[in-house]
Amino acid sequence: MQYYKDRRQKQLFDSYPGLTDRHLNYLKKTIYYYFRHYVLPYINVKHLKNNFSKTTGRPTKDLQSMIGLFIIQVIFNLSDLEAIEAYCFNYAVRYALDLDKNDYLCERTYYYYRSYLLGEEYEIFDSILKNIINRLNIDLSLQRTDSTLVTTALKKMTKLELFITTLTKFLKELQSTHKRIFSRINDDIRKKYIHENNNDNWFASCKPKDYSQTLIQVAKDILAVFEMFKEHKKVAQLESFKLLKRLVEEQITVKDDDVKVELTLKKKGEALVNPHDPDAQFNGHYEETGYKLNVTETCSESKDKPNPNLITDVEVAQANTPDKELLNSSIENLEKKGLTPATMLADNGYDSEENRQKLAERGVELICPPTGEPPDGFGIMDFTISDDGKELIKCPMGHNCLKNKLKPEQQKTVSYFDRSVCKACQHVEDCPVKLTKRKAVVAWQWKKPNIEARRRMFEEDKGTISLYRQRSGVESTFSLAKRKLGLARTTRRGFEKNRFQIIMAAIGINVLRMYQWLIKMDENGQFSKNKEEKRYMEERVYVFQLYWQYCFQIYVTLCYFCKIYVTPPKISYFSTKDFLQ
């Protein structure tokens, strides 16, 4: 039976057992207070009601508190056992989660709720984001997007290690589930891959010069086992056998009884990297294995205009997914939430004519540098182009084009000029027109003039240059996620578990930035940097006063043991106001 507190009704007394008023006053300055009052009540759990009975069954844990625990775990980068311990014994965490005196959590219950919430992370992210945006009332017209790779703590395997590990994993699972079927396998194969002591490994004595031969032998063993059980209904349903089948389809080819180990071109970016996490893929840009994280967040036009830089959309995809394929889906998600920006800043990995057209249809301007190298001299945009943008009329020096040959299937045009005129031109080396033995010709894509115009805008337009500088600020979000929130190398296995942890980290970043924004607001609700500076100075004064009292107590104690009578000096404790003045 689903259970969660109705926190919309305010409490008459904000007290907590075991904490004094001084403790509570101090908590009001920390993130625990803001989490309890500004985040926890607004976690949407109503979409989970279909999974529980309304009348029968034991009541669940407070679902808002459980989701809040996963968020706090990411914020403070706690392990699973540390999170359970904090839930049970940490007064600050218990205050933040609004727990009762008898609330308790065991390890089994923790993992149950974690597995239960897999797939619900986007609903949780959207509900908390909506509340934060309404509370802070920030400008959403300008946003920026970028991607990074979240690596996993997986071993980098050679092909030989991958083949051996995948086959061994299948044989061990078959041995534990179907012992009679396992006994049908050839004894030589069982002795090679199943052994009690790791030192008895058959492949331990493999020399580097024999690597290729050994790899082919292991591939033949895999094919033999695969052919033996591919028609077996029970064995074919095992997850380890599906990995074995995937390995055969992706990396083993047989031609005229000749076995070769080579990666299929169609599966080059999707090939199995490690059987312990089949969903993880290799990213050629980062040269690491993991999952791609795409983040969209708010930003301001300049540093003088403060902005909390809230994450408005987060997507987790396979590691080899191109950035340009993620941009359109991100804008669609923002449109559904009502958070569509007027301008989107991105790097050239997101640049494509298709993306620009789709974003323009939604009223979004995409600002990103074009791909490709700049022209060395004149560009196509320097020529006189027809109104439809498909034919050249004159070159930059005013010479007429003789002929234009359109190729609609390739979206390009081949333009011809007078060879004698081009050869005598002083800018022949700076012109894209190429001289051959019989003609002067230039082949150009229809989109090339627009690309060159955008490139020139990024080089000459100071307003665009100044605005685009704000795009690099998204790197600080990735740095925070990896250095502080545990995304440097995730220890989870599988796409769903990693996606849950990554989106919880995105929620944690939004909560941290909301807290940092609210503590800097003055009494009128306006953002103020002076308030944070004043608070910092007050803390320094308080620490100095404590230090002075500690030193005086040591001085008096030493004088007592030395039997020296000391008259305590009159210490006038100055106020924070006097110190700041």
Gross CATH architecture of the largest domain: 2-Layer Sandwich
CATH class identity of the largest domain: Alpha Beta
Distance between the termini: 59 Å
Number of domains: 5
Radius of gyration, rounded? Answer: 33 Å
Question: What's the mean pLDDT score?
Answer: 85
The CATH topology of the largest domain = Nucleotidyltransferase, domain 5
Helix content: 40-55%
CATH superfamily (homologous) name of the largest domain? Ribonuclease H-like superfamily/Ribonuclease H
Could you describe the largest sheet, including whether it forms a barrel? 7 strands, mixed
What structural class do the secondary elements suggest?
A: alpha+beta
Secondary structure tally, helices = 22
Q: Which consecutive residue ranges, at least 5 long each, have pLDDT under 50?
A: 569-581
Strand content is 5-15%
Give the overall shape: globular
Total strands: the figure is: 15
Would you spell out the secondary-structure blueprint of this structure?
Layout: H1 21-27, H2 31-38, H3 63-75, H4 80-89, H5 91-96, H6 107-116, H7 121-136, E1 142-152, H8 159-177, H9 179-182, H10 187-193, H11 211-229, H12 233-236, H13 239-251, E2 252-255, E3 258-261, E4 281-283, E5 288-298, E6 311-318, H14 324-337, E7 343-345, H15 353-361, E8 365-367, E9 384-385, E10 392-394, E11 403-407, E12 412-417, H16 419-424, E13 434-435, E14 440-445, H17 448-460, H18 462-468, H19 474-483, E15 489-490, H20 495-518, H21 529-561, H22 576-580
Parallel strand pairs: 1-7, 1-15, 7-8
Antiparallel strand pairs: 1-5, 2-3, 4-5, 5-6, 9-10, 11-12, 12-14, 13-14
Helix pairs in contact: 3-4, 3-20, 7-20, 8-11, 8-13, 11-13
